[in-house]
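Q: Could you fold this chain for me?
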Amino acid sequence: MQRREWLGLVLATGVAPPSTARAQANGLVIFAAASLKNALDEIAANWTKDGEAAPRISYGASSALAKQLEQGAPVDLFVSADIDWMDHVEKKDLIRKDTRVNLLGNKIVLIAPRDSKVALSIGPGFDLAKALGGGKLAMANVDAVPAGKYGKAALEKLGAWNGVKGSIAQAENVRAALLLVARGEAPLGIVYSTDAAAEPSVKIVDAFPADSHPPIIYPAAVAKDATSADAKGFLDYLKSSKARPAFEKQGFTVLVKSPSST
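A: Sure. Below is the predicted structure, expressed as structure tokens.
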């Protein structure tokens, strides 16, 4: 489906991609995991200051964005929060395989509202159910959204899943789960450490051991049907030394060696 056709569908049905990509006939369109918002917004602003056209970035759950790409949404660059969803679109021949790169790493943490008195050390057999005190545990969708899948895997590995599986408040993406805790609607939540760093209304209770879940990796790739001439250039910019400070400030681990500044 071409960009103009997709826009026509949006206008006719009122259905738009997550966070609304505002598809147009030209211009760089990026689909990116919701947890990247703070870092990518800053990087996009710097890219624009360098004289390039501002990209349009649609943030959402990697699962939802991958499905939108599969359905023909006009996109030039896709940045996922896990390997699985990038593998999914690669198997569908929806990305340019030679551009795919493992860009970033992250961690998952247990969070609580900033004024919470909860104290808990995460480890095998830890009593998360007791810490919830009858409340809900905010998580991104545990069956599809990367942050939710990582969180469920960690809870299963540590023996805590069975005690809390009936008390999960599942959100459409990790930022929505973060908001539930920030608003005090859930006493605890599982998000990326970078999300916790971006929200002053929450605090980190403890971090999950790295070996309790699969490695958290954010791959990026140019879409197979990309039409923007800036797609590869922006991906190179994300890998450059100019983008690194914005990622590291939010707590991401940069997995690529920065080439000379783009």
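A (continued): The radius of gyration is 19 Å.
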